[in-house]
Amino acid sequence: MATMTIAKAINEGLRASLTKNPKSLLMGEDIGHLGGVYRVTDGLIKEFGDERVLDTPLAESGIVGTAIGLALRGYSPVCEIQFDGFVYPAFNQITTQLAKIHARSLGKLTVPVVIRIPYGGGIGSIEHHSESPEALFAHTAGLRIISPSNAHDAYWMIQKAIECQDPVIFFEPKRRYWLKGEVDVENAGLSADPFKAHVVREGTDATIVAYGPLVPVALAAANAASEDGRSVEVIDLRSISPLDFDTVEASVKKTGRLIVAHEAPTFGGIGGEIAARIGERAFLHLEAPVIRVGGFHMPYPVAKVEEDYLPDIDKILEALDRSLAY
Amino acid sequence: MGSTQLPPGTEETLAATTAAAAAPGEPVEMVQLLGPDGKLGSDPIFSDYAKRIDPEKLRVFYTDMARIRRFDQEATALQRQGELALWVPLTGQEAAQIGSGHASQPQDYIFPTYREHGVALVRNVDLAELLKQFRGVSNGGWDPRENNFHLYTLVLAAQTLHAVGYAMGIQRDQKLAAAEDSTDSKAAVIAYFGDGASSEGDVHESMVFAASYNAPVVFFCQNNHWAISVPTEVQTKVPLANRAKGYGFPGIRVDGNDVIAVHAVTEWALEHAREGRGPVLIEAYTYRVGAHTTADDPTKYRESAEEAAWREKDPLDRLEKYLRAEGLADEAFFDQVDADGDELAKYVRSTTHGLEVPDIREAFANVYAEQHPLIAEELAWFEEYSAGFESDEETAN
Questions:
Q1: Rg (alpha carbons) of chain B, rounded to whole number
Q2: Quick one: which of A254, B116, B238, B328 has the most CB atoms within 10 Å?
Q3: Are B286 and B115 in contact (CB under 8 A)?
Q4: Cβ atoms of A204 and A254 closer than 8 Å
Q5: Tally of CB atoms within 10 A around B179
């Protein structure tokens, strides 16, 4: 067991993949000599050279589009988009091309491209540096979307994403980059399947579903609730597409109550999809409507007021109170 | 073809005669060998390449141009008869496609846009398979790896980036092969796009990436003068070939209705790319004689005089004149070409009628390469739903 931050765990995961697979390569702006603006790729260019770790021109569509071409030639490219809000110039390549090539070719072509995106707020940054666009991509068939919340997952999930023959968008919770945790580099354990949710805290009165940056918040809320005698189960979703409804459903059947928390705006978000599905699958087990805790229907606000925007312990506890009041 | 076979001074001469010589907005010199009068001229660089084309190859050029024009007419008719949802005619652009397609080698990979039926023919794609997309039975239709001819792409210019990435993969393959001491044949990529697509950001980004990494890619722009109803003048203030200079690689304008010049220029460009000298932009100056697709009406946006003037430059007519004048093809040859065209049309018509409508289960099967629970769940629902109808039928019977 080694203790490392999430950023370091991704770095080690990338190193392991680059070592294992000579056809894997990294590409993005500033990922080479600088090691990425968050230093997630630190030192990799020195180890693997600039043919495997490419400092690309500053062009997101170009990064993803050329990665598609490399994948068509048999390579496994891992692209870094510097920040969430900068993925939109590549949106076309991701949604109209990357997501569809396997289907269009009737399965004859695969494009195992991984797109790493540091996402989410809470870092006091400026416009376009704090967004959570996962629902936009989850709505597109052909893409897989995952987001680790701890170092062990980060280390293994990035490697599994690179091994996956489908395109994977890997959302990195940037405000948790420095969160330390134990990583078992010998044994993937539950992380061997990155598309399955984990029950990270058992409980009987209500279930909170979260992923990425909000998992620690959900856990803290569950701990606070336990002081009031409430037993709250917490699920780390890990995968947004595919979404592991079975794990959520099993939990709801046990607890009867569900709160879904994510940073992305509530309207049209993943929380709505989970609520609808659980309504269909476990209606008679529900003691209360599924309650969503998320961002408002507004552009991500300026940093000085982001605390009012982001789901926090209090907002989750308020939702819990509402749910328990039924 | 090794670099030693390049005519001495080629690079310098090109630099002097093409993009580098002209100020950005000035007309660029156009490479032409076979004029509209059917007479063969000369060019300081490309005549050497034209000499590689023997009479048999010229007859193949003519046959392929005639075949693809006949195919185009048949596909247009099929659309008019309601057999195809849409057709994208290529008439007028046969020389640009047949000439460039024949300059490629089997190991080169081609990324077409959606009008490259002539290139598809040269790359041995079954033309009936090409119609699947337009008939609405497939979003592709052929296995791109069989002939190194990629699927059509309807989102303009997206494929130019794929081409550059693919070319970057070729570079890496060669290094891996060298490290393993194996001999990997040198390859290049051609990215086709039109003058309208040249306005897309992806074309710009693809050229930036290609130049940055010296990727073995040939950008082949068919300037057919009309992006649906919008003329080239709205897309660009400078000759498109001149843009290459801004990215730092050669740009050549070639008479796109001159199959000999197109072949020569493309062969040069592909050798340039395969030998590690980096990308080239070719602007094939041509004209789309018909509509953009069967959905538009050119009479609404352009003058018939313009169309007539371009018909004078017809790529098939000029090669026919040349072949006849030089005694390289007789009447029997042209009769045979006509007969072959009729055979092809018959084949395409009957095959189109027989194209099978796929089962939607095939679509379920190909969304993801690996197992996906949502797909399994939705497919299971669909099976149950469909089975309900079947049992209803049984009851009714």
A1: 23
A2: B116
A3: no
A4: yes
A5: 9
Contacts 24+ apart (CB under 8 A), A187-193: A188/A156, A188/A160, A189/A152, A191/A152, A191/A153, A191/A155, A191/A156, A191/A157, A191/A160, A192/A156, A192/A160, A193/A160
Q: Which H/E stretch holds residue A95?
A: none
> What's the one-letter identity of residue B79?
Q
Confidence of residue B4 (pLDDT cuts 50, 70, 90): very low
pLDDT by residue (tens digit) across B127-146? 999 999 999 999 999 999 99
Question: B30: how many CB neighbours lie within 10 A of its CB?
Answer: 18
| pLDDT, average across residues B147-176 | 97
Q: Tell me the one-letter amino acid at B164.
A: V
Q: What is the pLDDT, as a whole number, of residue B3? A: 36
Catalytic residues of A: 129
Nearest-angstrom CA–CA distance, B149 and B142: 9
Of B170, B202, B374, which has the smallest distance from its Cβ to A65's Cβ? B202
Mutate to test the interface with B, among A25, A73, A110 (most CBs of B within 10 A): A73
**CB–CB contacts below 8 A, A to B:** 140
If residue B7 lies in a helix (H) or strand (E), which one and from where to where? none
Nearest by Cα to B317 from B122, B87, B48, B69:
B69
Complex ipTM value: 0.96
For residues A270 and A134, is the Cβ–Cβ distance under 8 A?
yes
Set of chain B residues whose Cβ sits within 8 Å of the Cβ of A164: 370
3-state SS assignment for residue A164: coil
Tell me if the bond preceding A301 is cis, omega within 30° of 0: no
Burial label, A277 (beta-carbon count in 10 A; 0-12, 13-18, 19+)? middle
